[in-house]
Every structure is written in structure tokens, then in C-alpha cells.
Specification:
This protein is mostly helical. It is built from seven helices and no strands. Helix 1 crosses helix 6.
Length: about 120
């Protein structure tokens, strides 16, 4: 299994890139993958911020039915969706996408994760 800090970093970077391009569907997918990685890494506050951003972009999204990200991850329905997203973009694919755009993959810290999330909460370009 991939290091959750690496996965968190990769998916947040891809979410930020998608957000800057106003590509909400991929942005939401990457935010959900980032939120799951944040839960695995123990960053529950970051996972919740990912959930809130998805809620902002898509108020009727499946993730919004749950009171928290950990609650969603316990649901069989959401687990099925999450598996589909991991097939959409594995950590290896995420790294390949980032390298192709000139980015380097480094493990996330709470500070770097919060910086990516801050970029996505400001005004859209």
C-alpha cells in the first residue's frame, strides 16, 4: 500500500491543479482521494476540509450524505465509489501526472496539505 502522506500530497496537488483550471469533476475526485488518504494518515481535519470543498462544488454529491469523511469510509456504498476512484487514478498514475506537469511528489505534512487547501478556498481564476 502506498504511503498515505505521499497519496495525500499527490491528490491534493492534482486537486489544486484541477481547481485552478475550473475542472470541478476531476477536482472533486482528487479531493475525495485526498480525503481518504488524509483519514489514513490521521489528518481528520484535512479530510473534513476536503469534504467541505466537494460539498461546495457539488452539494448533492454522495460524500455529502455523510456527517464526516470517516463516516463515509465506513459505508459500503461509499467504499464501492472510493474503489472506483482508486482505479480512476492510482497513486502511481497520480505521480506520473504530476511529473508530466513538472511537479515533484513529496510526502505531505499538515502545513503543506493546508496550503493546497487554502489555494482552493480562495476565489477561482
Amino acid at each position: 500500500m502506498a504511503d498515505p502522506d505521499l497519496a495525500l500530497s499527490a491528490y491534493l496537488q492534482l486537486a489544486a491543479i484541477s481547481h485552478a483550471r475550473c475542472q470541478w469533476l476531476p477536482c472533486n475526485k482528487f479531493l475525495i482521494l485526498a480525503g481518504a488518504a488524509a483519514c489514513a494518515a490521521g489528518y481528520l481535519d484535512i479530510a473534513e476540509r476536503c469534504r467541505e470543498l466537494v460539498k461546495t462544488h457539488s452539494p448533492n454529491h454522495l460524500l455529502c450524505r455523510y456527517e464526516s469523511f470517516p463516516a463515509a469510509l465506513k459505508s459500503a456504498e461509499f467504499q464501492t465509489y472510493h474503489k472506483q476512484l482508486k482505479k480512476f487514478c492510482s497513486i502511481e498514475r497520480a505521480e506520473h501526472l504530476l511529473v508530466g506537469q513538472g511537479h515533484q511528489l513529496q510526502p505531505a505534512t499538515a502545513a503543506t496539505a493546508n496550503q493546497y487547501l487554502l489555494e482552493m478556498t480562495g476565489p477561482t481564476p
